[in-house]
């Protein structure tokens, strides 16, 4: 109940922090990217942010794609988790489907890559399953 009556200033502060975390996903430092992914994971799992994410889903999707492609181990695992949460936030509409469709090939690629860490592969398998369940328009 108290979150619904939060002050507008608090919402802006939360959004500013989220924007900063999203910017940090493009940092050169793997540690900074991992910290940003952990912060995003916490934010996406603790409150509904679909309005905020709706405008920024393409930017976030691109950043997660880079983390999955160029990252290793923990970074890929965190990116898979954040992707799952993003898909949950976007829901079963066209936006969620768009996010899933754009990252599905990359999830499959990490999942089938025998050199990827087990945690990254597990996270991508979970993301693939959850996003497919939530947002896949194609029944197959």
Q: Runs with pLDDT <50, length 5+?
A: 1-5
Rg result = 15 Å
The number of distinct β-strands equals 0
Mean pLDDT: 87
CATH class call: Mainly Alpha
Structural class: mainly alpha
Give the full name of the CATH homologous superfamily: Leucine-rich Repeat Variant
Q: Please describe the biggest sheet, giving its number of strands, its sense, and whether it closes into a barrel.
A: none
Summed up, the helix count is 6
N-to-C CA distance: 40 Å
CATH architecture: Alpha Horseshoe
Shape estimate:
globular
* Fraction of residues in helix: over 70%
Give, in order, the helices and strands. HHHHHH
Proportion of residues in extended strands? under 5%
Tally the structural domains. Answer: 1
CATH topology: Leucine-rich Repeat Variant
């Amino acid at each position: 109940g108290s979150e619904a009556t939060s002050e507008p200033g608090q919402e802006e502060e939360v959004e500013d922090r989220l924007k900063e975390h999203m910017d940090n996903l493009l940092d050169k430092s793997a540690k900074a990217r991992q910290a940003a992914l952990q912060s995003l994971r916490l934010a996406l799992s603790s409150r509904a942010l679909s309005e905020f994410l709706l405008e920024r889903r393409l930017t976030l999707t691109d950043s997660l794609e880079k983390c999955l492609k160029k990252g290793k181990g923990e970074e890929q695992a965190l990116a898979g988790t954040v992707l799952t949460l993003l898909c949950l936030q976007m829901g079963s509409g066209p936006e969620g489907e768009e996010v899933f469709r754009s990252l599905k090939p990359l999830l499959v690629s990490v999942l089938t890559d025998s050199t990827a860490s087990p945690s990254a592969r597990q996270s991508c398998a979970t993301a693939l399953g959850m996003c497919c369940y939530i947002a896949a328009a194609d029944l197959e």
